[in-house]
Design goal:
Elements (H helix, E strand, L loop, with lengths): L7 E3 L6 H5 L6 E7 L2 E6 L3 E6 L5 E6 L9 E6 L3 E6 L3 E6 H10 L11 H8 L6 H4 L11 H10 L13 H21 L14 H4 L15 E6 L2 E6 L14
Antiparallel strand pairs: 1-6, 2-3, 3-4, 4-8, 5-7, 6-7, 9-10
The protein binds a DNA duplex (14 and 14 nucleotides) through helix 5.
Length: 250
Amino acid sequence: MLVGSIIDVTSPQGRFASGAAVLDGRECYVAEAYGKHLLLHFDGEIFLHIHLGLFGRIRKHKIPAKDPRGAVRVRLVSATHVVDINGPTICEIIERESMEKLICRIGPDLIRDDADPDRAYERISKSRVTIGKLLMDQSEIAGIGNIYRTEILWRQSIHPDTAGRAITRRQFESFWTDAKELLTIGVKRNAIITVDDPPARSRVGERLNIFNKAECPTCAGPIARLKINGRRAFVCVNCQPLVPNKKLRV
DNA sequence: TTGATTGTTACCGG
DNA sequence: TCCGGTAACAATCA
């Protein structure tokens, strides 16, 4: 990520212009991510908080920079590069207190070394909410989005409608390890890859197992389409059976 | 021009 | 208090 000296900050367009000016001339020491939130730490205990949401993009270019493309909210300029932040849901300047509050309300981030899986399991194993919904709740576990949800549950043979409290410790541990590996690959390759051996130059469909597909790569059975919290989800009816748990009553 | 989309939050009602 | 549903917002591309 971006770490180093920012010698200029401009906000060519949009409603964040006044906030961006605060960063002008400050040094940026650390860029850190907590789940899907990005925090850039500047001089004077000032943080630039960014969440890209569904559509946001970060683009890096060498100097000399071209004109900003699209809705650039903040442009960070160093001696050698510019970084444009396009269309984020959140793009704000905050102080340490707000930054700490933010971190507190985010669940353990799968790919951070300081993540505590027990904290996530503690909550999930007590919840009547389905695991499909819990995985997208960033205050439970941070990092998983809509595509990873479908793909990881398929890899773990867990039906998304399984109640959180029906997930066993063993299942959770296996899920955590797998999810962590997949997200780490995703960061490294800058792509969502959930198949074990994707072709070198793959298309989106070749990197995924069942998301947006009709047929299960393992059993060749049909893939069912669901909506969970209004988002598309997919499930293999054979490989991810919904296990009834007689001890649980809903 | 329309629809879909790797996301989040506020608000309301049961 | 918990939980589900809906709307709002965002930018881009096919």
